[in-house]
């Protein structure tokens, strides 16, 4: 029996390239329902980001949960990046689909996604500064409020999020932000890097890999942005209008299908959903939300909180 898998008849390949929690699973699974379509999703392309993942995997301080998660994705990320590198060799049409989301709502969703592991780190943060530790519910609530206060203090060191995103954050905060010890600072920086992802991802990943600035893209109806390149098209859709944006992409490509956009990873049944929602609606949460905007997110239509 031959061990060689037969080649699939692929008419169009898609890479859903985004920073997570933006509807990528729905888009990928919907596209893969169509005969002749092949879709993959990834957060990282390019040599530098992949090298950073590898370095993180080799870091003995990386928690087992995140090690398993990242190591499982590494091979897939390499395969997806190879599809991109071979875009003009394989001859199969390739489309890049980027996705974005309101940044503070995204941060809430990212915390909820790995709530159990985040609870462990928040509890550790409380312990290191000498705060009393209670039940898991109490630790989640109090830990998030502590985190929000520390994030607000970190932004204040720079003045605003634009200044924080523009420079080298680690040495400035290491010197200017109060922390107990190196481990306390490491845990805080882990959360800070999550918080900043919607604000730095496009410059570090999207533009550096694809060579496309979001400010150079054209309007796609009222549903997103797109650019036509020599080898194919790049799109950027908003999570909040994803269904209509998805239809607009297929129309633009001349690939309209009757398949509705599938709904995946939807629900409020995740652990500590109530505690997380209450913390994000708290005074500390709203104060942080007022700061949670940057040049990129404002350009994409997510203005500062108005009260």
Structure notes:
With 307 residues, this protein is an alpha/beta fold. It has one domain. The protein is 54% helix and 11% strand. A six-stranded mixed β-sheet has the order 2-1-3-6-5-4, sandwiched between helices. Helix 4 (103-113) crosses helix 9 (182-210), helix 5 (115-128) crosses helix 6 (136-158) and helix 6 (136-158) runs parallel beside helix 12. The longest helix has 29 residues, at 182-210. It is globular and about 60 Å long. The termini are far apart. Residues 1-6 have low confidence and may be disordered.
What is shown here, in short?
The chain has 307 residues and is of the alpha/beta class. Helix content is 54%, strand content 11%. It has one domain.
Radius of gyration: 21 Å
The best one-word shape is globular
Report the β-strand fraction as a percent range: 5-15%
What is the mean pLDDT?
90
Q: How many domains make up the 3D coordinates? A: 1
**Spatial ordering of strands, largest sheet:** 2-1-3-6-5-4
Order of helices and strands: EHEHHEHHHHHHEEEHHHH
Largest sheet: 6 strands, mixed
Low-confidence stretches: 1-6
Structural class designation: alpha/beta
**How many H/I helices?**
13
Helix content: 40-55%
Number-wise, the strands total 6
Distance between the termini: 68 Å
